[in-house]
Amino acid sequence: MRSKVVEATVRALRTAETSLPEWVLQRIKDMSEQETSPVAKSHLQFILENVRIAEARGLPLCQDTGLPIFRVEMGRDLELDFDLSDAIAEGVRIATQEIPLRPNAVDPLTRQNSGNNTGPGMPDIILELVDGRGLFITAFPKGAGSENMSLVGMLNPADDPFDFILRTVAERAANACPPLFLGIGLGGTFDLAARLAKHALFNLPGNSPMEMDLLKRINSLGIGPMGLGGDTTALGLKMERACCHTASLPVAINFQCWAHRYASEVIF
Q1: Burial class (CB within 10 angstroms; exposed 0-12, middle 13-18, buried 19+) of 57
Q2: pTM for the structure as a whole
Q3: How many CB atoms lie within 10 A of CB 189?
Q4: Strands 249-256 and 69-75
Q5: Which of 19, 32, 119, 215 is close enough to 114 for a disulfide, judged by CB 3.0 to 4.6 Å?
Q6: What is the pLDDT of residue 268?
Q7: Are strands 124-130 and 69-75 parallel, antiparallel or unpaired?
Q8: Residue 247, Cβ neighbours under 10 Å: how many?
Q9: Which 3-state string (H, E, C) describes the chain?
Q10: Is 5 left (phi over 0), alpha (psi -120 to 50) or beta?
Q11: CA distance 63 to 104
Q12: What would the pLDDT profile of 75-115 be if each residue is shown by its tens digit?
């Protein structure tokens, strides 16, 4: 059973690093056809060509292969006789060598590189308990260019969270390798808002009227692909909410670049 987890981890990472989900590709194609700026249109076409070459050669889509993040859905009735985190970490170490992946995991103070994308806190495993006895894993490698632009704001209850989101995107989007996907967490606490934003990225695309209106307002900023102008600043966004204290209004924005990479494996 442990070997299945290790093998599934490697497969999920390989797929996530070397290809994009079909709906993401289609979203880029659609926006390329609608884009009115010649420069922006050419950048979107370059992105599609980059993906085609990566898939054909089995190589990572981007030189920043990210930090290893995993969403694990595990049945409440499932009993494991091994350390799940250790098995996933072994898969990460194997994938780092075989795909290969750039070793990105460093100590925050010494900056010493582990050399294999594992170490304290890595891989980051987000565990969700579900009904049954199954085990389902999603690899979600996250690059630093977009992650560095992410932000949690502790607003006053009277503040407009959507104005805060628009200001933040206007200030930071160009440095996050747009066009973007955005996960937005509204409410909760300081840390819960950030978790909601990350979780929202897992659950893209959003299509509620509120989400579509905000996406339209973001694209009207004119930042465009690679920050060089155009109609396509964001390709999609998703919002998730939680109740918050009467005296606070946390808002988190998790930036994701155009390479919205993820892949899932059903282990058992």
Answers
A1: exposed
A2: 0.94
A3: 14
A4: unpaired
A5: 119
A6: 87
A7: parallel
A8: 7
A9: CHHHHHHHHHHHHHHHHHCCCHHHHHHHHHHHHHCCCHHHHHHHHHHHHHHHHHHHHCCCCCCCCCECEEEEEEECCCCCCCCHHHHHHHHHHHHHHHCCCCCCCECCCCCCECCCCCECCECEEEEEEECCCCEEEEECCECHHHHCCCEEEEECCCCCHHHHHHHHHHHHHHHCCCCEEEEEEEECCHHHHHHHHHHHHHCCCCCCHHHHHHHHHHHCCCCCHHHCCCCCCEEEEEEEEECCCCCCEEEEEEEECCCCCCEEEECC
A10: alpha
A11: 11
A12: 999 999 999 999 999 999 999 999 999 999 999 999 999 99
Strands across the sheet with 263-266, in order?
124-130, 69-75, 135-139, 263-266
Upstream peptide bond of 178 is cis (omega within 30 degrees of 0): no
CA neighbor of 262 nearest in space, from 91, 141, 176 = 141
φ and ψ of 185, to 5 deg: -110, 125
Burial of 138 (0-12, 13-18, 19+ CB in 10 A): middle
Amino acid at 5: V
Give yes or no for a cis peptide into 250 (omega within 30° of 0): no
Each residue of 31-62: pLDDT tens digit?
Answer: 999 999 999 999 999 999 999 999 999 999 99
β pairing state of 263-266 and 180-187? unpaired
CA distance 174 to 78: 45
For residue 83, give the amino acid letter. Answer: D
Which of 61, 42, 24 lies closest to 180, judged by CA? 24
* Distance, CA of 67 to CA of 139 (rounded, Å): 10
Identity at 265, one-letter amino acid code? E
- Residue bearing tokens 């659950």: 203
Find the distance separating the first CA and the last CA of the chain, reported in whole Å.
9
